[in-house]
Amino acid sequence: MDYNEKWEIIDELGEGGQGKVYRVIPKSMGYPIDMNIIHTVKEIGNPNSGDDYRRQKYELFRKSLFTLLERENSSNHKALKVLHKPEEARDAELAEERIKNEIKAMAEITHPNLLKIVEYDLDSKWFVSEYFLRGSVSKNRDIFAGNFSEALKAFRPLVEGVAELHKKNIVHRDIKPENVFLDSSNKLVLGDFGLVFFNDDDKTRISKTLENVGSRDWMPAWAQGVRIEDIKPTFDVFSLGKLLWSLVSGLPKLLLWYFDKPQDNVESLFPEDRFIKFANPLLRKCIVEDEENCLPDASALLEEIDEVLSIIENNADRVDLEVERRCKVCGVGHYELIVNEDTTGVSNFGFTPSGDRRWKIFTCSHCGNVQLFSYEGKPPDAW
């Protein structure tokens, strides 16, 4: 079926080696204003026209205006992706295989944070999907910058969507800000499944064995030059980690796995964000140099995210001597370590220590509020 039968092209959104993308609306919505609209408006205000005639013209104008508003409503707009003609494509056979697998992946998994396919025709090599007026995260870099808790809350459902892909043995391979879209409520939606790899028994291949298997700046270094068959969900986890870093930092690009360098370290960039201290420990499990240090898939990442969100929702602090904690009482000062397992120091607070019990005591630099931590034998995991 020719897409022109059902869809009217509004404008072109972009073009790549695989094909073109257009913004479209259903042709069933019709045209809002005919050639006589100016005449119609004049007739409505013409005092010499009869009431019935003017009422008919007013009704025509009202319907036209309603249709126009519906056409302008972004919720009625969709994105049409059309494969290049064979003579225009970089690699016609590969492009055809990719778009078929893209359609298959989008149709196979239904999740609110994965781009929804509306209609497609495999033979004619086109499909229509959701359209997001606000565009991608790459065009809205400041939306979560410096707000780790809000970024993580928005990020979580997206990871849940990728986890559904991984459960179906699908690796997306192209997760980056340009391929993640924002709806009106700041929901993140992952699109562009053009590089998906089905890691099933058939090893459905959509790339040449030695070609780059993802976008250079967002893919792990360990995946460069590897066979497509060797790609694992860890690939997506690495990219998800970089995406989270981008959401929090508001920066366009991160070199390799160096998220903790001063110029890119979100903890250094946003020291006033109370929960920013939970960012790097999470990123450290995704953005890694070696694959064996990466979380195995999006489900594992989801568990880590839920643990951090639980801490945030309970208004808790990260317990670490390297982390500066604001006072729970005055909210102005910060806790300073006064006693670090020192018996004499504990005595100064009126305690008579005995046995193997050890203490860490903090006082607020502003109001003097005291926090005590005590344990016997081996220090607890937090320390």
Structural notes for this entry:
It is a single chain. This protein is an alpha+beta fold. It folds into three domains: 3-129, Phosphorylase Kinase, domain 1; 134-313, Transferase(Phosphotransferase), domain 1 (Orthogonal Bundle), CATH 1.10.510; 319-383, N-terminal domain of TfIIb (Single Sheet), CATH 2.20.25. 30% of the residues lie in helices and 17% in strands. The chain is built from nine helices and twelve strands. Helix 1 crosses helix 2 (51-72), helix 4 packs antiparallel against helix 5 and helix 4 (148-167) packs antiparallel against helix 8 (298-313). It is flat, with a radius of gyration of 28 Å. It starts with 6 loop residues before the first strand and ends in a 7-residue tail after the last strand. Residues 203-211 have low confidence and may be disordered.
